[in-house]
Write a sequence for this structure.
């Protein structure tokens, strides 16, 4: 999957969803160090629009990056991304519960 995503991103480097999928795949491989750049690219690309679909994707990208940051021990940054995901995604965003749990969990970690 990672190889195919790399090919897809070479063909369309501005495809935010492909960057997000690559980030998630790297997290599944337990490689948050490799996930983080893909997550950051997905966050950046998905922040460029006000359409509902991009706002949903932006929330997912922030939350997935928060997970990568948490696994890297960067707890403050992870908490900030979870907070940003909650404030920027629509009220009915499916990731809201997960983001709330992560924000609460990280509130007690230094």
């Amino acid at each position: 999957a990672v190889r195919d995503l790399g090919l897809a991103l070479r063909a369309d480097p501005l495809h935010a969803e492909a960057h997000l999928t690559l980030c998630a795949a790297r997290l599944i491989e337990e490689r948050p160090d490799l996930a983080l750049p893909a997550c950051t690219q997905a966050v950046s690309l998905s922040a460029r629009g006000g359409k509902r679909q991009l706002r949903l994707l932006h929330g997912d990208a922030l939350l997935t990056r928060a997970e990568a940051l948490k696994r890297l021990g960067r707890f403050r940054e992870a908490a900030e991304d979870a907070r940003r995901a909650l404030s920027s995604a629509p009220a009915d965003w499916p990731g809201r519960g997960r983001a709330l749990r992560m924000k609460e969990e990280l509130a007690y970690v230094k």
